[in-house]
């Protein structure tokens, strides 16, 4: 099966329009299937030299790509989206192969990624300037928008297609070249996207994909070279803080989408069936390995028993297994480190007095990194499963009594990416919108991601937005033009 999926891939780095099959020192690294532990590909191990070559190639075409018309960029992005949709099955199977999520989710990710190319195909035609009323009759004031220059994307393993598409689509639409550094755990999908754009006719050098086992070696030139003017990163807060420090000497624009500690709040007037369905949709997307997954459950004491049983019932019935197998809804975690972290969080909670509503845990008889869903009650804020982002299929449930109390507890974190609330009280909805300190709110909605919405967080979850009408703003500069001597 891997051979069939990889047959159309060069298995190389994409640098300046060339597929590079060997790096300077001949190093390689392996990509494994998290469901089986098997090696599925061996790739050249790119580093600083390859990244520098990609920057040079982008610099050579920067002005020519910026000079293309919005209509030309729009047509190319739309063509790429159509090619992705036509090749959905192969791309989806590639995502499942290297990342592990069930094939149905991988198909959804391909569609989601393609939607960003469609969206920014339209937004590229709406990067508009303005004329500002001048303070004197002999002047005119114009505001023009222009591409920021060479850009870079540093992306995680959990959405190997969509995480790239959200950044790449906006950059290309704005007229910027981009260098993509995907996760070393899931580089194959990134290379497949490189081939998609090559086939769509993107000029050589506008997109490079540099993969390697040492993220710092690839990121180093991206952060130090002054020609790279904007970097978009999705990943952990410690790495985000490091990139901010590295961006300072060259005054780069940086967009950070970091971790989340998403609260999921169920009020006493909520539709419990809908709340349980929404909890599963939020918590179990990609086996709980997303930055917007519900991480802390706050359920009103009057409905806590009903909700936790409804949630456990749904999770209990979800088949666990290889993402390629029919009917599987829960695939493996990405690697053994992820399994160990989830297990440690559960053990810490149980030692602290939490109880199991649904006993899941690791699958000791499997060669893959499988972890069955766990539901915990009697959880307290001091436990690691609440204080840290678990990134796995664990649902820790706490109770509350009042709205003021739960808002205070939900906000008591340095993070602020997403929050979820279930209630039928419209007045409460508007109060929560004003009071909850998060960049994304799902009100009676467990699935919040869409190309049309501005995705991003506040506080320790970073800054900047991807998608929506503002996503392209991360890649353009406003140029103020003051014109004098208008009248003779």
Task: Please give a structural write-up.
The protein is of the alpha/beta class and 488 residues long. The chain folds into 2 domains: 2-258 and 463-479, Aldehyde Dehydrogenase, Chain A, domain 1; 262-450, Aldehyde Dehydrogenase, Chain A, domain 2 (3-Layer(aba) Sandwich). Helix content is 38%, strand content 22%. The protein is built from 15 helices and 24 strands. It has helices at residues 2-6, 48-66, 70-86, 88-99, 103-123, 162-174, 188-200, 215-224, 237-247, 272-283, 304-316, 336-351, 384-387, 403-411, 426-435; strands at residues 13-15, 18-20, 28-32, 39-44, 130-132, 140-147, 150-154, 178-181, 207-209, 228-234, 253-257, 262-266, 294-300, 355-358, 361-362, 371-372, 374-377, 394-400, 415-416, 418-422, 440-443, 458-459, 462-463, 476-483. A 7-stranded mixed β-sheet has the order 14-17-18-13-12-20-21, with helices on both faces. It has a 6-stranded mixed β-sheet with strand order 9-8-7-10-11-23, sandwiched between helices. A hairpin with a 7-residue loop joins strand 5 and strand 6. Helix 2 (48-66) packs across helix 8 (215-224), helix 4 packs across helix 5 and helix 10 packs across helix 11. The longest helix is centred in the first third of the chain and has 21 residues, at 103-123. The protein is globular and about 75 Å long. The chain starts with a helix and ends in a 5-residue tail after the last strand. The relative contact order is 0.14.
Show the helix and strand layout:
Elements: H1 2-6, E1 13-15, E2 18-20, E3 28-32, E4 39-44, H2 48-66, H3 70-86, H4 88-99, H5 103-123, E5 130-132, E6 140-147, E7 150-154, H6 162-174, E8 178-181, H7 188-200, E9 207-209, H8 215-224, E10 228-234, H9 237-247, E11 253-257, E12 262-266, H10 272-283, E13 294-300, H11 304-316, H12 336-351, E14 355-358, E15 361-362, E16 371-372, E17 374-377, H13 384-387, E18 394-400, H14 403-411, E19 415-416, E20 418-422, H15 426-435, E21 440-443, E22 458-459, E23 462-463, E24 476-483
Parallel strand pairs: 7-8, 7-10, 8-9, 10-11, 12-13, 12-20, 13-18, 17-18, 20-21
Antiparallel strand pairs: 1-2, 3-4, 5-6, 6-24, 11-23, 14-17, 15-16, 19-22
Helix pairs in contact: 2-8, 3-5, 3-6, 3-7, 4-5, 5-6, 10-11
């Amino acid at each position: 099966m891997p051979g069939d999926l990889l047959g159309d891939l060069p298995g190389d780095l994409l640098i300046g329009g060339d597929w590079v099959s060997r790096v300077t020192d001949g190093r390689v690294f392996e990509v494994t299937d998290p469901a089986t532990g098997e090696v599925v590909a061996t790739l050249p191990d790119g580093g600083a030299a390859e990244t520098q070559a990609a920057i040079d190639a982008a610099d050579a075409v920067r002005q020519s790509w910026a000079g293309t018309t919005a209509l030309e960029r729009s047509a190319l992005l739309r063509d790429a989206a159509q090619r992705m949709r036509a090749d959905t099955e192969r791309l989806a199977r590639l995502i499942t192969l290297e990342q592990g999520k069930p094939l149905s989710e991988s198909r959804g990710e391909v569609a989601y990624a393609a939607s960003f190319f469609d969206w920014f195909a339209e937004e590229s035609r709406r990067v508009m300037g303005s004329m500002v009323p001048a303070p004197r009759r002999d002047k005119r004031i114009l505001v023009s928008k222009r591409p920021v220059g060479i850009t870079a994307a540093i992306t995680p393993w959990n959405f190997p297609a969509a995480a790239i598409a959200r950044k790449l689509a906006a950059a290309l639409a704005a007229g910027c070249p981009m260098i993509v550094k995907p996760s070393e755990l899931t580089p194959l999908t990134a290379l497949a996207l490189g081939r998609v754009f090559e086939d769509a006719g993107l000029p050589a050098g506008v997109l490079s994909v540099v993969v390697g086992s040492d993220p710092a070696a690839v990121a180093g030139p991206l952060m130090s070279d002054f020609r790279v003017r904007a970097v978009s990163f999705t990943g952990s807060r410690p790495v985000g803080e490091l990139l901010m420090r590295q961006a300072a000497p060259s005054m780069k624009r940086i967009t950070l989408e970091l971790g989340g500690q998403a609260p999921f709040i169920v009020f006493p007037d909520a539709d419990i069936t809908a709340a349980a369905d929404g909890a599963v949709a939020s918590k179990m997307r990609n086996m709980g390995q997303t930055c917007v997954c519900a991480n802390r459950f706050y359920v009103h004491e009057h409905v806590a028993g009903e909700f936790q049983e409804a949630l456990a019932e749904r999770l209990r019935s979800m088949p666990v297994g290889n993402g390629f197998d029919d009917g599987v809804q829960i695939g493996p975690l990405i690697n053994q480190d992820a399994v160990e972290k989830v297990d440690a969080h559960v053990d810490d909670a149980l030692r602290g007095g939490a109880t199991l509503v649904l006993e899941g845990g690791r699958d000791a008889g499997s060669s893959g990194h499988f972890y069955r869903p766990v539901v915990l009650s009697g959880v307290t804020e001091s436990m690691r499963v609440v204080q840290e982002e678990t990134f796995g299929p664990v649902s820790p449930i706490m109770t509350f009594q009042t709205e003021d109390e739960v808002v205070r507890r939900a906000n008591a974190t340095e993070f602020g990416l997403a929050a979820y609330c279930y209630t039928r009280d419209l007045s409460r909805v508007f109060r929560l919108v004003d009071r909850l300190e998060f960049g994304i709110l799902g009100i009676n909605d467990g699935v919040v991601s869409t190309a049309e919405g501005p995705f991003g967080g506040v506080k320790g979850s970073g800054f900047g937005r991807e998608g929506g009408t503002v996503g392209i703003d991360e890649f353009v500069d406003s140029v103020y033009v003051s014109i004098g001597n208008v009248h003779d």
